[in-house]
Design a protein that fits this description.
Number of helices of chain B: 20
Oligomer: heterotrimer
Structural class of chain A: alpha+beta
Chains: A alpha+beta (163), B alpha+beta (801), C alpha+beta (285)
Number of domains of chain B: 3
Largest interface: A-B, 56 and 56 residues
CATH class of the largest domain in chain A: Alpha Beta
Largest sheet of chain A: 5 strands, mixed
Strand order of the largest sheet of chain A: 2-1-5-3-4
Strand content of chain A: 15-25%
Largest sheet of chain B: 7 strands, mixed
CATH superfamily of the largest domain in chain A: Beta-grasp domain
CATH superfamily of the largest domain in chain B: Aldehyde oxidase/xanthine dehydrogenase, molybdopterin binding domain
Shape of chain A: globular
């Protein structure tokens, strides 16, 4: 049994048929081919599937697909500008070594984007508090914190925009 | 050959990785993201008992479920034996020996149907008595896990037929010479490697039966060998297996063996005639993919009145689980710290392994070294206390120095241990902080030795590199090891750019593929950059030789064309007096930043030829056209040890380091708060400072998890915490303390640019450094990991009486 | 996950109607517990009725009584500044629930109805003397939160009933409260948690409420500990006694996360520390 789901992804309206029991992550990856959002645990524990849902960071693995009806969702692909120009958060992670195997990176980038929209100049404690739901096994997090700090700087240079 | 350190353009700096941008953009394709035309989805059915005879498997309902294309068991597929002792099987027949034994599998048109089909398979078991510890397994009358060996010969014990021993010097004399002796029993648990990307593969056979595997592996070529063997067992002899490695969502040792699920995927692909993708869920990763090996050890060390170590005994007992994988070879690496950390003349090492009905274990970062370093570095502090010597001083007194050969036969060439110890003590403010338990704060340190020039565990420890230059001046590099996040591609890219003389953005590392890359034993033992760059060195020397020989012929014509163009734009230009043809000798050329020049030529723009243009001149020469592709295979200078004697110089060089920490212990809750961490590592030479730091921080975080938080808990063979909900790896909040990192560059002559391997060392000394600091803070010593608040509170309670 | 129905009613009436049409359908709030159980195969409902758009379940209303709609996301709770002023202990606890992603999905009602003994919002709501409003087709009842939990996963709401709101009297200005949570790592289910609320008159404790999580089959009040404190002057000796009483009063067990002995011990430590902090007494170490 399927239902029609209409919502907006990365600024574009989409319409997909979903099995009513599907999750948002299944719609993004399978129906829409947006493979950047990763499933690390399926339980809301690792944060690899973090997307912005009406501007707020959530675990796409926990959101029933039908809950996205009418919502505006942003995935990691949505932070990439025209011609493949990385957004400031992505550029910062590249610059500062916040990426090793990269599996946690889309989720980490989205969580950082959410944090910086809410707190453009976060303290170390605020960064750690915001990213506590994003697990990384490779980096030991040090260069991730440095990436977030640089991202804050790059965003403020950009006039606070995500472009 | 290599530019002197001061002139280096790329090596030694902090350089963003070439693969980071796509990962940040969500464009990197992991096995999770791959699909093949006509692909089916596979799923495994696991045992419901830890030890049982299989009476009957009913697959009929599963086969009838719409969307299912195959259901297989050991009873309707050829037998595929796996594992280095050949004691395991892709699908189990006759009996199951642990709860994660694979008994059946399904291929279906989508993962949900596959999952449903698995539930429709019913298996009838006859439970057997089971054993869950080495003690139980080795007791008289214990049920046998394996009744026959791979050759069909009857087995009469659960003890594995592997001999690990080392005796050197005169133990009795060493014990007599000891004024102080410290002894302890230590245990380290099963640990989950916890890659963020779970295990998976796609198996695809062509019509002739040749296999292509997209595999989450660290050993593409050894896997190829294993898969060829499996194809033979399946009646597909003389077929090829090609292993392609996609972007890896972590490794940490999980990819060092081949896994039953991979063979099952091949069997399903063979049965259905379609590609089959198998992906483990996080629960399956926790419960059914082998964790890090656990170990119980007894360590005894003695020193004389001045604190010089006189002997060391180490005995290790390992719960091997139901089948043998690389956990069973941890003792080979344990030999390093046991025989060679600090100068100890008299050593005894023995290890026993027992089959049980627990899960079997595989490799993880450090591979046995952290397990025994914990006990060695903890008892060393106890010795220091007995002898009234400061723990830093006792380490300095016994430290390894360059030019020594250890009892195992390890030839220590470069060794920065002394400087690492001093830096650690300095940055911890050791003299002021040690022994001041009033504010429940303490400091502790521990050292490490590890292989730094690969570790020879197979008849070849080599790896090759192919450098292929093209008409655009690009250098395509093929290397058979893997990038799993550690930064291998970055090191290779920068190393080739540096030494060949091209811009890093003209260097492209090809995907690891046994079809196109030279053989490599696998990316383990921290060997990736060491081997790849050493091979690349030999290959780019060949490239440069050919380029410069060709330049002797072709450079003058290119320069003349340049000059003509230059004169057209600048009619009054007078060129300097320099005979290009006469100077165009092979030994007079240089290539830097992708530009070819003559070493002694005046600095004029028309005297420089862009590499791409030159390569086109080389290619488009009519009958004499050439393409420049060169390859080299490198074997490090090392020996394959005799494991039963525990002797052999198994690496081309050795890495050393020290970690120290300051902690504060809450005596009431038992919580340990790390106030500061210092990591000092002898790395030979920094290749990419950014990725090197990443390896140290990452190893440290895993070391902290190992020391304080992580444990795969089991009861009667069942894993009780198979999810991140209850298996807790450190979050960003746990790493919120300053970390001071100091690199010692000892410039090893075997290392490319002088570099040593650094992937694993970061995890080795963390646990004992913390244990030692906790002892300094509150006077309790915990000898079984993880050091939890529960254990500290209990120990403090006991101490108070 | 096999295909099944998903409904998004906009009123309680519609929600109840859908449930009566499909009695085996399951209500879903934030999804953070239900979706996990569905994925693990422990729950296979033929239909889900999402409460995310039901009007009557949303919003936080301030007055002499604070009313929190059951569908209030935990993150919303944290953003409500007035709540942060009037009942800061709730925000203290809510901040420890998951990470920001979970808090944007998890709801207060869901956290309570899931009835885990470890529910982070339960101890603070217990010390706030919260009441649960339960709706069913055509009726409404109220019960104290202290009576709401029956056993792990089990509450006093019946099949087809929906928790619509939490209510508690706005604490007066003199009230002080705090919340401690022990877990293995920072984002984690509690090993032991304790919410403490006191009204002090100088050194005298006029009223006390203690509620513990993860140390019994239900989140629980500690009446013996409360009785020990009420009407007494807070001294170091009393705090020691309090620690012993509180530790003895809880009923923890050993599981994958921690041991019975440690949990009991930590409750005692927390009780002493909380009272030392709230009463202004420097804790003797």
């Amino acid at each position: 049994m399927t239902s029609e789901l209409r919502f907006e992804v990365n600024g574009e309206p989409v319409q997909v048929e979903v099995k009513a029991g599907a999750r948002l992550i299944d719609v993004l990856r399978n129906a829409l081919g947006l493979l950047g959002t990763k499933e690390g645990c399926g339980n809301g524990e690792c944060g690899a599937c973090t997307v912005l849902f009406d501007g707020r960071p959530v675990n796409a693995c926990l959101v029933p697909a039908m809950e996205a009806e009418g919502a505006k969702v942003t995935t990691v692909e949505g932070l990439v500008g025209p011609g493949g120009a990385l957004g400031p958060v992505q550029r910062a992670f590249v610059e500062k070594g916040g990426i090793q195997c990269g599996f946690c990176s889309p989720g980490m980038v989205m969580a950082t984007e959410a944090l910086l929209r809410d707190r453009p100049d976060p303290s170390d404690a605020e960064i750690r508090s915001a990213l506590v739901g994003n697990l990384c096994r490779c980096t030991g997090y040090v260069q991730i914190v440095e990436s977030v700090q640089l991202a804050a700087k790059l965003r403020s240079e950009n006039g606070g925009s995500r472009g | 050959m290599e530019a002197a350190v001061a002139e280096r353009r790329h090596i030694g700096k902090e350089v963003p990785r070439p693969d980071a941008a796509d990962k940040a953009a969500g464009r990197a394709a992991y096995v999770q993201d791959l699909a093949r035309p006509g692909m089916l989805y596979g799923k495994v059915k696991f045992s419901e008992h830890a030890h049982a005879r299989i009476k009957h498997i009913d697959t009929s309902r599963a086969k009838r479920l719409p969307g299912v294309r195959a259901v297989i068991t050991a009873y309707d597929t050829p037998e595929v034996r796996i594992g280095f002792l050949r004691d395991n099987f892709a699908l189990k027949r006759d009996k199951v020996r642990s709860l994660r034994d694979e008994v059946a599998a399904v291929a279906a048109i989508d993962p949900d149907i596959a999952r449903e089909a698995i539930d429709l398979i019913t298996v009838e078991y006859e439970p057997l008595p089971s054993v869950f510890s080495p003690e139980e397994a080795l007791a008289e009358g214990a049920p046998l896990i394996h009744e026959v060996d791979a050759r069909g010969k009857r087995v009469t014990t659960n003890r594995l037929p592997l001999e690990y021993h080392h005796t050197s010097g005169d133990l009795a004399a060493g014990e007599r010479a000891a004024k102080y002796i410290a002894e302890g029993e230590f245990s380290t648990p099963l640990i989950q490697q916890s890659c963020m990307g779970t295990a998976g593969c796609i198996a695809e056979l062509d019509v002739a039966g040749n296999l292509t595997m997209w595999a989450k592996t660290q050993i593409p070529f050894l896997a190829q060998k294993d898969f060829v063997r499996a194809l033979e067992a399946m009646g597909l002899g003389d077929r090829n297996a090609r292993v392609i490695v996609p972007t890896l969502g972590g490794g940490f040792g999980t990819g060092l063996d081949t896994h039953a699920y991979e063979y099952i995927s091949i069997l399903l692909a063979h049965r259905t005639g379609r590609p089959v993708k198998m992906l483990y869920t996080r629960e399956e990763e926790f419960a059914c993919l082998s964790p890090r090996q656990s170990a119980e050890s007894r360590i005894v060390q003695g020193c004389d009145a001045e604190g010089r170590l006189t002997f060391r005994r180490a005995y290790v007992m390992q719960d091997n689980g139901a089948y043998a994988s690389w956990g069973a070879t941890y003792p080979t690496v344990m030999l390093l710290p046991v025989t060679s950390i600090y100068r100890v003349p008299n050593i005894q090492f023995d290890a026993d392994l027992a089959y049980t009905n627990n899960t079997y274990a595989q490799a993880m970062r450090g591979y046995g070294n952290p397990e025994v370093a914990f006990g060695i570095e903890s008892t060393l502090d106890e010795l220091a206390e007995q002898a009234g010597i400061d723990p830093f001083e006792i380490r300095m007194k016994n430290r390894n120095e360059p030019g020594e050969t250890t009892p195992m036969g390890l030839r220590i060439t470069t060794c920065g241990l002394g400087e690492c110890l001093e830096e650690t003590a300095k940055h911890l403010d050791w003299k002021n902080k040690r022994g001041h338990a009033k504010r429940r704060r303490g400091v502790g340190m521990a050292s490490l030795i590890h292989v730094g020039g690969s570790g020879r565990i197979y008849r070849s420890d080599g790896g090759g590199v192919i450098l292929k230059l093209d008409d655009f001046g690009n250098v395509n590099v093929s290397y058979g090891g893997v990038e799993m996040g550690q930064g291998l591609h970055s090191a290779l890219c920068l190393g080739v750019a540096e030494a060949l003389g091209v811009k890093p953005d003209k260097v492209f590392i090809n995907q690891t593929d046994t079809g196109t890359c030279p053989w490599d034993v696998g990316t383990h033992a921290s060997r990736g950059a060491f081997i790849a760059l050493n091979a690349a060195t030999r290959a780019y020397e060949k490239v440069r030789k050919r380029l410069f020989a060709l330049a002797a012929e072709l450079f003058p014509a290119e320069v003349e064309a340049n000059l003509k163009k230059h004169r057209r734009k600048n009619p009054d230009y007078q060129p300097p007096d320099y005979d290009v043809r006469a100077h165009s000798r092979a030994d007079n050329f240089e290539l830097a930043d992708s530009v070819l020049t003559l070493k002694d030529a005046p600095d004029e723009p028309w005297l420089k030829v862009d590499l791409a243009r030159f390569l086109r001149a080389v290619h488009f020469r009519g009958q004499q056209g050439q393409m420049i592709t060169e390859e080299a295979f490198y074997e490090p200078k090392s020996e394959l040890p005799d494991w039963a004697k525990g002797v052999g110089n198994m690496s081309a060089t050795y890495a050393f380091g020290v970690q120290g920490c300051e902690v504060e212990v809450d005596e009431h809750t038992g919580e340990v708060r790390i106030l500061k961490m210092v990591c000092a590592h002898d790395v030979g030479q920094i290749l990419n400072r950014q990725t090197l730091l990443g390896q140290v921080y990452g190893g440290l975080a895993q070391g902290i998890g190992f020391a304080l938080y992580e444990q795969v808990q089991t009861r009667e063979g069942r894993i009780l915490n198979p999810s991140f909900t209850d298996y807790k790896i450190p979050t960003i909040a746990e790493l919120d303390f300053p970390i001071h990192v100091h690199f010692v560059e000892t410039e090893d002559d075997q290392g490319p640019f002088g570099a040593k391997g650094v992937g694993e060392p970061g995890m080795v000394p963390t646990a004992p450094a913390l244990a030692n600091a906790i002892y300094d803070a509150v006077g309790v010593r915990i000898r079984d990991l993880p050091i939890t608040p529960e254990k500290i509170v209990a120990a403090l309670g006991e101490k108070r009486g | 996950m096999s295909g099944f129905d998903y409904h998004r009613p906009e009123s309680l009436e519609d929600a109840f109607r859908l449930k009566s049409e499909q009695p085996d359908a399951r209500f879903i709030a934030g999804g953070t517990d239900v979706m996990v159980r569905i994925r693990e195969g422990r729950l296979r409902p033929p239909a889900l009725i999402s409460l995310s758009r039901v009007q009557e379940l949303s919003g936080i209303r301030h007055g002499d009584e604070i009313q929190i709609g059951a569908m209030t996301r935990v993150a919303e709770l944290l953003r409500d500044e007035e709540l942060g002023r009037s009942a800061p202990v709730l925000a203290l606890a809510a901040r420890t629930l998951g990470g920001m992603q979970i808090r944007n999905l998890a709801t207060v009602g869901g956290n309570l109805c899931n009835a885990s003994p470890c529910a982070d919002t339960a101890p603070p709501l217990l010390v706030l003397d919260a009441r649960v409003v339960v709706r069913s087709p055509g009726s409404e009842r109220e019960l104290p939160l202290a009576d709401f939990f029956v056993a792990p996963g089990e509450t006093r709401i019946g099949e087809g009933e929906i928790v619509s709101e939490l209510r508690f009297r706005r604490p007066h200005m003199r009230t002080r409260a705090t919340f401690f949570k022990k877990s293995r790592v920072r984002m984690d289910i509690a090993i032991a948690s304790l919410a403490v609320r006191v009204d002090m008159d100088g050194k005298r404790c006029v009223a006390a409420r203690l509620a513990a999580g993860s140390v019994a089959p239900r989140p629980m009040r500690l009446p013996r500990a409360e009785a020990l404190l009420e009407g007494r002057d807070i001294t170091a000796e009393l705090l020691d006694e309090l620690g012993t009483v509180a530790a003895a009063e809880v009923q923890p067990m050993t599981d994958v996360r921690s041991t019975e002995a440690y949990r009991r011990h930590v409750i005692g430590v927390f009780a002493r520390r909380a009272l030392a902090q709230l009463s202004g007494l420097e804790e003797a170490r």
